[in-house]
């Protein structure tokens, strides 16, 4: 190697010399320009980290978690789509009074727990608690109504909407009763019905047979009931909204 080549190699950077050995001159020049000389250099900020860096990292993690959760959460159906699909409609095969009797028993336990000791005394305390209660499963009877044909209608509430009670009668009929202009009666037994059984043994037949028959008689002991009358005009709220609403006692001019 002559002195001219040694001088040119010393003047070139080491990267250019190594690239010239592996590639042709044009390719080595391109790689040197794009990959080395014009390569961006990312610098860390010279300013000190903020004092709440830990809280900032926590907020960033929480934001990412919420974004993932929001992406996975399905969007609810709009009201028009829910009505079109009939999500809240009870099928004809399910409109049977016997199917909702267990729900009524659960509601009786629920309303006894809500009223507490005031179920024996009544008054404004029981009325205020009753106005905020949920009536899904309650057995209601229409005692007064603007439509005379509805008086005497009795059934278990299967849907408590804002303006109507949807009930299933003992004849397995679904009835839609508007709350406006209607007074409903609700009976709440103070205790569960007690059933006692008595066994009577009688001997029949001849002495050789010696057979005995047992007869069981069940008698139901009726317990006292607390009877409430609910003015539908004052219950024109959804059950979810009624639970968080505070009612004030005042004189009602309706009915």
From TrEMBL:
Residues 40-83 are annotated as: Disordered. Residues 56-73 have a biased composition (Basic residues). GO terms for molecular function: ribonuclease P RNA binding. SMART domains: POP4 (SM00538). Keywords: Nucleus, tRNA processing. GO terms for biological process: rRNA processing; tRNA 5'-leader removal. It comes from the Eukaryota. Gene3D superfamilies: Ribonuclease P/MRP, subunit p29 (2.30.30.210). It is found in: Nucleus. Its main location: nucleus. Coiled coil: none annotated. One of its GO terms (cellular component) is nucleus. Belongs to the eukaryotic/archaeal RNase P protein component 1 family. This is Ribonuclease P protein subunit.
């Amino acid at each position: 190697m002559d002195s001219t080549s040694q001088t040119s190699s010393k003047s070139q950077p080491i990267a250019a010399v190594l690239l010239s050995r592996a590639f042709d001159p044009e390719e080595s020049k391109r790689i040197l320009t794009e990959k080395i000389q014009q390569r961006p250099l990312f610098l860390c900020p010279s300013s000190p980290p903020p004092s709440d860096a830990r809280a900032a990292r926590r907020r960033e993690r929480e934001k990412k978690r919420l974004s993932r959760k929001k992406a996975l959460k399905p969007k609810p159906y709009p009201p028009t789509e829910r009505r079109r699909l009939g999500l809240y409609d009870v099928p004809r095969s399910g409109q049977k009074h016997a199917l909702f009797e267990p729900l009524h028993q659960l509601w009786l336990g629920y309303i006894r727990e809500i009223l507490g000791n005031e179920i024996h005394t009544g008054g404004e305390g029981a009325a205020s608690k009753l106005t905020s209660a949920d009536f899904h499963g309650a057995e209601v009877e229409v005692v007064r109504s603007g439509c005379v044909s509805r008086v005497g209608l009795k059934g278990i509430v299967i849907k408590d909407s804002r303006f109507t009670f949807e009930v299933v009668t003992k004849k397995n009929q679904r009835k839609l009763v508007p709350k406006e202009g209607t007074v409903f009666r609700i009976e709440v037994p103070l205790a569960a019905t007690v059933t006692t059984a008595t066994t009577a043994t009688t001997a029949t037949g001849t002495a050789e047979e010696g057979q005995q028959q047992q007869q069981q008689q069940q008698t139901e002991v009726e317990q006292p009931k607390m009877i409430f009358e609910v003015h539908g005009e004052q219950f024109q709220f959804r059950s979810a909204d009624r639970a968080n609403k505070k009612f004030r006692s005042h004189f009602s001019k309706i009915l």
